[in-house]
Queue: 2 jobs
Job 1
Amino acid sequence: MKHHSQQAASRFDDWADSYSEGRISSWFRFYQSMAMSQLKIAEGCGFLDVGCGTGWAVRQAAKQLQVGKACGIDISAKMIENAVAETSEAHNIEFQIGDAEAIPYPDESFSSIICTFSIHHYQNPVSALSEMKRVLKPDGSIVILDSARDVSFAIWLQDRGRRYFEKSHVKYYTTKEMTDLIAKAQLQLIGDITTINKFMDHNKVFTGLMLLSCTK
Ligand SMILES: C[S@@+](CC[C@H](N)C(=O)[O-])C[C@H]1O[C@@H](n2cnc3c(N)ncnc32)[C@H](O)[C@@H]1O
């Protein structure tokens, strides 16, 4: 495992036991649901959550999927261990330890891919987006959701602090930077980027997010 990925794995191993029931777990779930609603999961074949944490979105997708598996990969072994423990026998769910920059699935495996609150940890986000593109079926879609530096000044400030104090944090992107990353990975943006700027939302003081869909 690369040094930076090891740092992310270690930080999230430490968070894994309190992740699903933590103070802002409802915030994560609310916005993951919003990201998933951009996808036609039930009509497609296969779903992948990149940086799946304890796997809540994977379990939701598995209920909708008619064909293929709902899969989750995460760099943190402890997140994956807990994702498996929180999943009661669903025949169409699979979790694996894996790096977003080397997704452990063959080409064109999934119609629907999400990556929520995770891309700001990747050392090379273009490699990760290119990997998502590789495992995406030709008519499939990818939804990215993350904090955005230009949506809220509080998020801009948090980014400065986290770059300094939090080893796994690479950066919160601006909407323009994210558009450029999508273009570099040779993905096509579908529609406009949605931005969300809120104060005191689901136990989180500042919310400053971007949500976007793209395809091959
Ligand atoms: C804040 S959590 C988000 C989890 C989940 N997507 C959600 O929305 O609740 C970020 C997750 O990204 C994972 N992660 C960080 N770097 C990664 C990488 N290079 N490859 C795969 N997962 C990674 C972390 O281990 C962590 O579980």
Job 2
Amino acid sequence: MKRRDFLISSCTACLSASAMAGLLSGCKSTQYVTGHLNKDGLLVDKDDFKINNNDYRSYIVVRHDELKFPVCIYRFSDTEYSAIWMQCAHQGAELQVAGAYLQCPAHGSEYSNKGKVTNGPAERDLRTFPVTVNHSQLFIDLRKQ
Ligand code: FES
């Protein structure tokens, strides 16, 4: 194999490996759950955040067939969470989680992990819901904003 061909094939393999690693780490970091929907809101197990005995995910995404958009729940501590409706406040596209913030794929608006708009074109904060924490579950009250 000529040196030029070797370099091209090596770089292609490296790029593919790093792209795959990025994709896999992105998949690994997002935990999707369905939760339990009742007439007032969503019940989610606190264990859904658990990675192992000492580690917790910083967020999970609740996707339920009866909800038009997912709800992202950020965990700040065992007793502090935020629940955010993942519909962009600009023109209504579904948001994506990008670690500690939410991003809109349509026009690039960004929001904090508490639903505050940090980058336009959106001018309004996201819809958020009160979270009640009990021993093993979270209750996301969908009646309130
Ligand atoms: S719909 Fe989200 S930025 Fe436009």
